[in-house]
Specification:
- This protein is an alpha+beta fold and 229 residues long.
- The chain has two domains: 70 residues, Glutaredoxin; 136 residues, Glutathione S-transferase Yfyf (Class Pi), Chain A, domain 2 (Up-down Bundle), CATH 1.20.1050.
- Helices cover 54% and strands 7% of the residues.
- It is built from ten helices and four strands.
- It has a four-stranded mixed beta sheet with strand order 2-1-3-4, with helices on both faces.
- Helix 1 runs parallel beside helix 3 and helix 4 packs parallel to helix 9.
- The chain is globular, with a radius of gyration of 17 Å.
- The structure holds glutathione.
- The site of glutathione has 10 residues, from loops.
- The site of glutathione (GSH) has 10 residues, from loops.
């Protein structure tokens, strides 16, 4: 059976989990400890997830994985060939990434996903680029202010005619790779205390969730052990 190695919080991993759900593919879900360098390096030569294994094959780019899974292009993968639209989406995702990751990383780090060892590794690694996590929390209002106009762009994109047919009628057959790329990238904000998406974005995300049978945290609660804080 195909197996997905992933980090629960990682937007690129969520992309693949959403695609697997939308395609109705059964898979072995393997959340990985963030400090485990050996497993991804043994599989693909570098420490980067998601990784999907399928018999002898090990793939580690989210879009390559989805192309491999969706050979019939049910997720309208032809959209990836429209360079202008793809560049526009990827540019927005990268601008969203900075405030979302600055806001969410300190909270992701204290979910059950992270053992104390994994948390130390994560905080140390991510602080190099972003600065100390306590400063990220102290500066949260700055990042929330940065995020507001970007989420307005997301809302405009969702409402625009050419980006998503799914957003209009929430028909599963209209769900595309663009819906998955956008949703997986902003999903993490659900963890940020007291943050609320606009009604338009929340409704869109919840419909994507349904179409993808996506459950963000379920892997962490398969057994009854308490959070490893
Ligand atoms: N282009 C890759 C990006 C994947 C990626 O950036 N993964 C991050 C997690 S969000 C990672 O594995 N980072 C390893 C690390 O920071 O140690 C994809 O689309 O799959």
């Amino acid at each position: 059976m195909i197996k997905l190695y992933h980090y629960i919080h990682c937007p690129f991993c969520i992309r693949v989990r959403m695609a697997l759900g939308a395609l109705g593919k059964k898979f072995i879900s393997q959340p990985l400890d963030y400090h485990d360098e050996k497993t991804p390096i043994d599989l693909c030569g570098k420490k980067m997830l998601p990784i999907l294994t399928d018999n002898e094959l090990a793939l580690n780019e989210s879009l390559d994985i989805i192309k491999h899974l969706d050979s019939e292009s049910s997720l309208h993968l032809d959209k990836l060939n429209h360079e202008k639209d793809l560049n526009q989406l990827e540019d927005l995702l990268s601008r969203l990434g900075k405030p979302i990751h600055n806001l969410c990383m300190p909270y992701w780090a204290y979910t059950k996903e992270f053992t104390p060892e994994a948390r130390n590794y994560f905080i140390q690694k991510k602080s190099v680029k972003r600065g100390p996590f306590e400063k990220l929390i102290q500066n949260k209002n700055t990042f929330l202010q940065e995020l507001t106009p970007l989420l307005k762009e997301v809302e405009d994109l969702i409402k625009s005619d050419d980006f998503s047919s799914f957003a209009k009628g929430h028909k599963k057959e209209d769900l595309s790779i663009f819906d998955i790329m956008l949703s997986s990238h902003i999903w993490g904000m659900y963890i940020f205390p007291e943050f609320q998406f606009s009604e338009t974005i929340h409704t869109y995300l919840q419909n994507v969730k349904m179409a993808c049978e996506f459950e963000y945290h379920e892997d962490l609660w398969k057994d009854s052990s308490p959070p490893n804080l």
